Structure formats: C-alpha cells, structure tokens
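Appendix B. Chain record.
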Amino acid sequence: MPVDSIPAIELTVGGIAAIAVSPYFEDPDGDVLTYAATTSDATVVTTSVSDTLMTVEAVGEGAATVTVTATDPDGLSVEQEVSATVVAPELTIEDFISIAEADGFGGTARRGGRPRRVTAHRFPWQSVLWISSTAVPFGLP
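Structure tokens predicted for this chain:
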C-alpha cells in the first residue's frame, strides 16, 4: 500500500531524476516488494527501475504521467501516479550566436518560456558580433 505520495518531477530536457521508491510503499505482511515504472509519453520522459531506484530521463518538452507499480511475492500490486514536467533549458549566449548566424543575423528562438527575437550585427570595421534579444509578445511570430 502507498505510504506517501511520490513528489512531482520537474526536469529540463536532458536531465535525469533518480528516486528511491521504496519509502513510498509498504507491504502489510512485511513482504519484499518489486517495482516497475511506465510513462504515459515516451517522447517526454523515459523510465526504468533497478531494484528500488527509479530513473526518469527527460527527452522532450511537455508533461507526462509516470506510473510506479509495487508488487508483492503473491502478485498483489498497487500503483502511484507521478506527474513529470519537462522544460527546455534557458538559451545560452552560444545559442544566440548560432541562431543569429544561421538565420542571416536574425531569427526567433524559443527554449522554455516566451519566444525571443534574436538580432546580430557585425559592423565591417569591428570584429565584435553584437547580439540583442527581445521577448516576442504572445500571438506574434
């Protein structure tokens, strides 16, 4: 039976969470439990369980439900659902440079949160690449 709720999981793309699931379940007879986990959307997170350690890996932005199942030796089982939310990491300066240069010194980028309009200028008499970024209002390209 569940002892406590497994907390929600929040990750950035590429992140991994490792959670010991045994503290969240107990068997009334004191039997040793085995654990398994599944995901509602493998494009958002993947899951695996080794002994009592569940690993959740963030593979894409979005939300998914991870179902953790505890089973006793008699085959009786109980499940807990855990919400998993994955967001994109924040843009780095390298991201801005690459987007600006790839899009002919201008473009729109989105990585978590609101889209950003990125503009880059390289003046012929300077070796500096000037980059600016502004938030794009919702509803605009």
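Further analysis of this model is presented in Appendix C.
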